[in-house]
Amino acid sequence: MARTKVSIKTLFLILFLAYGTIKCVHGAESIQGLGINWGALASHPMDPHIVANMLKDNGIHKVKLFDADSWVVSAFSGTGIEVMVGIPNDQLSKFARSSSDAEDWVKQNVTKHLYNGGVNIRYVSVGNEPFLKSYNGSYVKLTFPAMQNIQKAIDKAGLREKIKVTTALNADVYESSSNKPSDGDFRDNIRDDMKQILQFLHETDSPFIVNIYPFLSLYQSESFPKDFAFFDTQSRTISDNNAQYNNVFDANLDTLVWALRKAGYHDMKIVVGEIGWPTDGNQNANSNNAKRFYQGFLKKLANKQGTPIRPGSMEVYLFALFDENLKSIEPGNFERHWGIFRYDGKAKFPIDFSGNGQEKWPQEAKGVVYQEHKWCVLSAEVKNLSLVPSALDYACANADCTSLGYGCSCDNLNLAGNASFAFNQYFQTRDQSVEACNFNGLASIVTEDPSKGTCLFPIEIESSGDMVTATRIVTSLLIGLSMFFITS
Ligand SMILES: *[C@@H]1O[C@H](CO)[C@@H](O)[C@H](O)[C@H]1NC(C)=O
Ligand SMILES: *[C@@H]1O[C@H](CO)[C@@H](O)[C@H](O)[C@H]1NC(C)=O
Ligand SMILES: *[C@@H]1O[C@H](CO)[C@@H](O)[C@H](O)[C@H]1NC(C)=O
Ligand SMILES: *[C@@H]1O[C@H](CO)[C@@H](O)[C@H](O)[C@H]1NC(C)=O
Questions:
Q1: Using CA atoms, how far apart are residues 154 and 420, in angstroms rounded to an integer?
Q2: Is residue 228 located within the same domain as residue 115?
Q3: For 399-430, what is each residue's pLDDT tens digit?
């Protein structure tokens, strides 16, 4: 999406950010080993410099990315924040086939950032959940060769000790026939592929990265005992050998530990690549449940409790920093609502990243610039609603309406309310363009906030696409000015 509009506000923001970088902010400290995922599948991604400052303000020193966008990665330069970069699944075939493409990738997306005081890149995740069942095996034969080629390139660049090559896998790569962790093993149809990868991780001393989602256990099974998804009750226990399990996270992670043991890797390091709770798009996805989940989980992390057969501290990346309104909703409408923070960097619920369990709000994004205070709604003059449903469907096919369903934040609207919500989502996604608020004359722009109760009618932020352009303009202005002083 090309964006050329640059507002004066955006230019001021650049100057503000430059100031913020100079003026060092000291924030809270989070639990050691705590990181966070930042995905960029949003129509208006947050400016990476704002994100870097926000992580520092919250004392979070690790970030996991899903690609290696140069502008994003370079924003972490000099921050000391550990960065995991990723290679998207659709690029695996290229790197599986060609070691020179892998070398180019490492040069352009890793080595370039590593000059003294540069970016602290620690991991490369080759693929993202490439063995996921719903991919029907499309990436199974590509992942390992791609890992090998990226590793060769890393070795060639002399980075073997500093940067670990791995792949973030979903917990669906293993299972237990009895639901007891000790019966854990890798899925039949990928067991040999997993063996190659385990051997590789062992030789390179790289961690096994696994994404674990207690929310999905609850979502996928009506009979799943809800409390077992959280960490604060003993209402249900699974006994397994001498171990007692009173939450599904422990049971799931130990199923992996058993699967690794069976494959001969007793002490392979495990990193939790994604874990979190969504806040909308499903009746169990709300801020109260998310708060409860994180509170229990972070306390457990801070206490270095670990799991029954893997006690101790853990390295964990929460999922996720922000909501992403362009994520596929094939897995469910909750997919666009995983953020601990909203799309604009505002906190949704209290969360104590130090794990002390205090009722406190995290540090929000600073310096976010919003678009104008304008919304698009169903025009008050429309009395005949017969043409509304098709317009509503059109808006929802092209913008995010996942807050409208049963049990969601906007589930109490009538047809007119639904239409207004949908029209506004469409309008905001399209940068409030006047043409995006027409719908055959059904819609009109208003300046009074239509939000009601839990149902938020958002105003989008100035996207970081604008920021790139603005940064370039400021830079060329500065260069121009200095040329002026040099030549005069
Ligand atoms: C570097 O990473 C970016 C973002 O993932 C990608 O678009 C680009 O193709 C990569 N560069 C190379 C040389 O592969
Ligand atoms: C996997 O197979 C299912 C059922 O045949 C199909 O609906 C789906 O689109 C396939 N997914 C991919 C990524 O190929
Ligand atoms: C509402 O509009 C539709 C389509 O223009 C029309 O067919 C219908 O008769 C109208 N209903 C009323 C009550 O005016
Ligand atoms: C509003 O939209 C939601 C989600 O599509 C739907 O379930 C609900 O029935 C709609 N309400 C009305 C009054 O049309």
A1: 52
A2: yes
A3: 999 999 999 999 999 999 999 999 999 999 99
The bridge status of strand 443-446 relative to strand 375-378 is antiparallel
| Residue 103 is a catalytic residue | no
Range of the domain at 420: 375-460
Q: Kindly state the helix (H) or strand (E) to which residue 275 belongs, with its residue range.
A: strand 270-275
pLDDT in tens, 440-481: 999 999 999 999 999 999 999 998 655 555 555 555 555 555
- Closest listed ligand to the CA of 389: 4
pTM: 0.91
Domain count, the chain: 2
Q: Strand, helix or coil at 143?
A: helix
- Candidate of 92, 133, 136 to mutate for ligand 2, largest count of ligand atoms within 8 Å of Cβ: 136
Q: Evaluate whether 270 touches 206 at the Cβ level (below 8 Å).
A: no
CA of 255 to the centre of ligand 4 (A): 41
456's tokens: 């938020």
Nearest atom, ligand 3, residue 387 CA: 4
Tell me which of 104-118, 122-136, 406-420, 469-483 is least confident: 469-483
Q: Are residues 302 and 410 in the same domain?
A: no
The 3-state DSSP class for residue 167 equals strand
For residue 328, which ligand has an atom nearest its CA? 2
Same domain, 408 and 321: no
For a substitution probing ligand 2, which of 89, 90, 134, 135 has the most ligand atoms within 8 Å of its CB?
A: 134
Ligand 4 touching residue 331 (CB < 6 A): no
Asked whether residue 8 is domain-assigned, the answer is: no
Q: In this structure, are strands 315-318 and 34-38 parallel, antiparallel, or unpaired?
A: parallel
Q: Is residue 343 part of a domain?
A: no
Q: Are residues 140 and 215 in the same domain?
A: yes
The verdict on residue 349 lying in a domain is: no
**86 within domain boundaries:** yes
